[in-house]
Automatic annotation (TrEMBL):
The keyword Chaperone does not apply. Pfam families: Inositol_P. The lineage of its organism: Bacteria, Pseudomonadati, Pseudomonadota, Alphaproteobacteria, Sphingomonadales. This is 3'(2'),5'-bisphosphate nucleotidase CysQ. The keyword Magnesium applies. It comes from Erythrobacter mangrovi. Mg(2+) binds at residues 60, 78, 81, 189. Keywords: Magnesium, Metal-binding. Its cofactor is Mg(2+). GO terms for molecular function: 3'(2'),5'-bisphosphate nucleotidase activity; metal ion binding. Gene3D superfamilies: 3.40.190.80, Fructose-1,6-Bisphosphatase, subunit A, domain 1 (3.30.540.10).
Length: 244
C-alpha cells in the first residue's frame, strides 16, 4: 500500500469508527467528543506504528516527544478535527492524516465522515467554477477579526463553519473561494488539509506569504491562507495592510 493509499484508508476507516461511536447511543455531548477522540486516535496511532514503524508521528491526542524531530518522514494526524461539531452531531468535522517529508506536507487525506467523503492529495478532482462574488469560510463561533475585515474590503460573503478541515475542504469542493485564519492553530489542524489543497491547485501559505512548514519543535501555527490562486495576492495584500 502506498503512503497516499494508506493515508486515505486510515482517514476513511477512522471516520467510520467515529460514526459508529456516535450512533452507539452510549455517549452524548462532551463525553461523545472525548470517546470519539480517544477511539479514533488509538486506531490511527496503532495502525501507523504497525504500517510505518520507522516514521515519526505527531497526533493531537497523543503525548508529543522529541523523537519525531530527527525523522525526515513524519505522519501528522488529527483524529477528530472539530470535536465540538462531532459531539453536536453536525457534519462540519473531519479526520486528518498527513505525511510530511522534510517539513513539507507531501501527502494528505481529509475525511468528512458526516458527508461520506474522503478528499485525497493523490486523487485531485476538477475544481468547480468560482462564484462571481467570493465566499470566505470562517469560524462559526469566533470568526477572526482580520478575516471579517478582509471580507468586508473585498466584498466576500462570510460562511460560518466548524472545523479547520471542513473549512479548507469547502474551498477544495468549490463551496467557497477563501479560507483565511489568523486565530492560531496547531500543525495537526492544517497538515492534511494543506496537502490536499495544494494537490488541487490551490494556494496555501502563511498570511505573510511564506510557506507552511511542519514537524517543528513548537507545533503552534499562528495563521494560514488557503484560497483559489486568483485571490491569493489580493488577500495577502489586504492582511498586510491591516497590520501596517
Amino acid at each position: 500500500m502506498t503512503d497516499a493509499e494508506l493515508a486515505a484508508h486510515l482517514a476513511e476507516v477512522a471516520g467510520k469508527i467515529l460514526i459508529q461511536v456516535r450512533t452507539s447511543g452510549m455517549f452524548e455531548g462532551k463525553s461523545l467528543g472525548t470517546a470519539g477522540d480517544q477511539t479514533a486516535n488509538q486506531f490511527l496511532v496503532h495502525a501507523l506504528r504497525h504500517q510505518r514503524p520507522d516514521d515519526g508521528l505527531l497526533s493531537e491526542e497523543s503525548k508529543d516527544t522529541e523523537e519525531r524531530l530527527s525523522k525526515s518522514r513524519v505522519w501528522i494526524v488529527d483524529p477528530v478535527d472539530g470535536t465540538r461539531e462531532y459531539g453536536e452531531e453536525r457534519t462540519d468535522w473531519a479526520v486528518h492524516v498527513a505525511l510530511c517529508v522534510e517539513g513539507k506536507p507531501e501527502i494528505g487525506a481529509v475525511a468528512l465522515p458526516g458527508l461520506d467523503v474522503v478528499l485525497r492529495s493523490d486523487a485531485p478532482t476538477a475544481m468547480p467554477p468560482a462564484a462571481a462574488k467570493p465566499r470566505m469560510v470562517v469560524s462559526r463561533t469566533r470568526p477572526a477579526k482580520e478575516a471579517v475585515a478582509v471580507a468586508e474590503t473585498i466584498g466576500a460573503e462570510l460562511i460560518g463553519m466548524g472545523s479547520a478541515g471542513a473549512k479548507a475542504m469547502a474551498v477544495v469542493r468549490g463551496e467557497a473561494e477563501i479560507y483565511l485564519h489568523t486565530g492560531g492553530q496547531f500543525e495537526w489542524d492544517s497538515a492534511a488539509p494543506v496537502a490536499v489543497a495544494i494537490a488541487h491547485g490551490l494556494h496555501a501559505s502563511r498570511v505573510d506569504g511564506s510557506p507552511l512548514v511542519y514537524n517543528q519543535s513548537d507545533t503552534y501555527m499562528p495563521d494560514l491562507l488557503i484560497c483559489r490562486p486568483e485571490w491569493a495576492e489580493r488577500v495577502l495584500a489586504e492582511v498586510t495592510r491591516l497590520e501596517d
